[in-house]
Amino acid sequence: MTDASGAPRERPKSPHLMTGGFGSPLLWRWHITMFTSIAHRATGVALYLGALMLAGWAVALATSLGETDHKTYVDYMALLGSPLGKLVLFGLTLSVFYHLANGVRHLMWDSGQGLDIKSANFTAVAAIAFSIAATLAVWGIAAMTGAL
Amino acid sequence: MSTEFRTPLSRARGLGSAKHGAAHWIAERVSALALIPLVLWAVFGVIRLARADFDTAVAWLASPVNAVLMVLLVLVAFWHMQTGVRVIIEDYIHKLLTKSVLLLANLFIVSLAGALAIFSILKVALGGAL
Q1: Model confidence over B90-122: pLDDT tens digits?
Q2: Which of A49, A131, B49, B62 could be disulfide-bonded to B129 (CB atoms 3.0-4.6 Å)?
Q3: Does domain B8-127 correspond to CATH entry 3.30.460.10?
Q4: For chain B, which residues make up each domain, given as ranges?
């Protein structure tokens, strides 16, 4: 009825399939809310690993209770304090503040607020800016108090 | 618990989750709210402990406020991340066997690590200062 030729029309595909599949140029223009959505999941997975590191810290502390030299705890803290450990901790700091700020955005949306494009774009920038500022503040405090 | 969050009209219309979706959705958000203060407290705890030696760390964790907040943090954070990763697996993995294995692995890893963390915190808090 809508097609004069009478032949069945090809059904529309999901946009990521219309351009040739995953990894090919997106049909959609890149936008910041796309980034914040992907980053929320990525930082969530990163924090999963961070939580396992926290559990490892608690186990190392408890294990060292029975050691005269507290070797397990000392070794664990040395690992965290190594250059690679510091890099991971810096990434986790960024992840924790980003996931927190973006999580507040999600809670706001769940209450029905800020769903229009202008607000969503603004809070996206705000969440990214907050996570960077808070991360630098924490590492600044850590440096000033001699924790690094 | 699952149906109590939905209005009788929503259930009568038969729309929305067929099972426990509404309760999961709300519980994930309640845990998110609880994690805001807990995580901010934990960040300052990490700064405090980064420069601390073993005895200082034990004394810190043995204080009642720190021990209780740490146990709550582990409980809520591990529960929250279990549900979050569960949603990611359910979104992207559709093969039944792979999905089942990943969902069980997620549950078992979180349960094991969470139990180890809470037991260790309590061990330090209840006997570590001696």
Answers
A1: 999 999 999 999 999 999 999 999 999 999 999
A2: B62
A3: no
A4: 8-127
Contacts of B54 in chain A (CB under 8 A): 61, 64, 70, 73-74
Contact B47 A145 (CB under 8 A): yes
Domain ranges of chain A: 30-144
Q: Rounded distance, CA A57 to CA A72, Å?
A: 10
> What's the rounded Cα separation, in Å, for the pair A90 and A139?
8
Reported confidence tier of residue A10, pLDDT bands at 50, 70, 90: confident
Gap between the Cα atoms of A79 and A123, Å rounded? 36
Residue type for B36, please? I
Can you give the pTM of this predicted structure?
0.85
Phi, psi of A4 (to 5 degrees): -65, -30
Q: Do A58 and B116 count as a contact with CB atoms less than 8 A apart?
A: yes
